[in-house]
Amino acid sequence: MTDNHSQIFFGQATGLSIQSSSKEDPYIFLRCIKKKSDGSWEKPSKGEGKTIRCSLEEIVMMLEVLNKRMSNWTSYHSYKDTQTQISFGWENGNGNKLWINIGNYSKMLIFAQIEIFKMLLEHLLKEKIKFATIFNGKKTSDKSNTSFEVKEEFNRFEQTNIRSSNNLMKEIPKQSNKVQNSNTADITQVEGVIKSETEKALFIQFNNGQEVWFPKSTVHSNYSPNRDFNQKFLIDNWILRKNKIIS
Q1: What string of pLDDT tens digits covers the 247 residues of the chain?
Q2: Buried b (16+ CB within 10 A) or exposed e, 62-75
Q3: Other C-beta atoms lying within 10 Å of the C-beta of residue 230
Q4: pTM score, two decimals?
Q5: Which of 102, 125, 137, 142 is the most buried (most CB within 10 A)?
């Protein structure tokens, strides 16, 4: 059995790779790169592209989406005071196209790629459960570093589960189009089309032709990054009123 795995999924403009350097590591790496205007691809060796490290718990949540037990899942990664949002979601909520977003990188996988991605994740999870969760009893000379790493991993696990619980709650059908978030601020469900997206904002066009930039912090629902696709959003009322979307 090989000790490392690597698979790349290329598209016309974006590439996604999944990598595991050792079966004894309790994590994998996901990396996204884009094609440049000159036709060449970004090179991670030069600090280009976006790479995140995913834990065993996050692999489980990805498989929940891939096996269609969830329509989508969102989490956040923190590294050197920088937060990166990642999400897995089916186009139109349930279909044969899967969107993977890592920061401002978006990659769509089609059926064959999805099956390979799923089988590889399932294999990696079983492999790492067997080899990466063994406690060998070895002591380290730097106890402070060990304590810090354990605490950091626990915090990442805790935040992942908090985010996942919040996203599961978002999938519960609402009796009204007005609900309240955890900060007791009213939000309303509206329909529109994503015309553009940055790491921190969405540019949404509504059915009446009005176009508005919304900070992602004011959007409380998952969404497909697919352009020109009409979908529903849960957005804070205060910014909807400010832009005269609602009265």
Answers
A1: 568 999 999 988 999 999 999 999 999 999 999 999 898 999 988 989 999 999 999 999 999 999 999 888 988 877 777 788 899 999 876 778 999 999 889 999 999 999 999 999 999 999 999 999 887 654 444 444 444 444 454 455 445 444 444 444 444 333 334 444 444 358 898 999 888 888 788 899 998 889 999 998 899 887 777 777 788 888 999 999 999 998 8
A2: bbbbbeeebbbbbb
A3: 11
A4: 0.58
A5: 102
Q: What is the DSSP letter of 181?
A: -
**Three-state SS for 146?**
helix
With a CB cutoff of 8 Å and minimum separation 6, the contacts of 192 are: 204, 205, 206, 207, 230, 231, 233
Alpha helices in the chain (DSSP H): 56-66, 111-131, 143-170, 237-242
> Which residues make Cβ contacts (< 8 Å) with residue 219, sequence separation at least 6?
202, 233, 234, 235
Contacts of 121 (CB under 8 A, 6+ apart): 18, 59, 62, 63, 66
Instruction: Compute the distance between CA of residue 26 and CA of residue 167 in angstroms, rounded to an integer.
Output: 24
Please, what are the domains in the chain? 5-134 (2.30.31.10), 178-242 (2.40.50)
Comparing CA positions, the residue from 23, 21, 19, 20 lying closest to residue 32 is 19
Spatial separation of the C-alpha atoms in residues 212 and 201, rounded to whole Å: 10
Token pair 């897995």 in the structure block, residue: 88
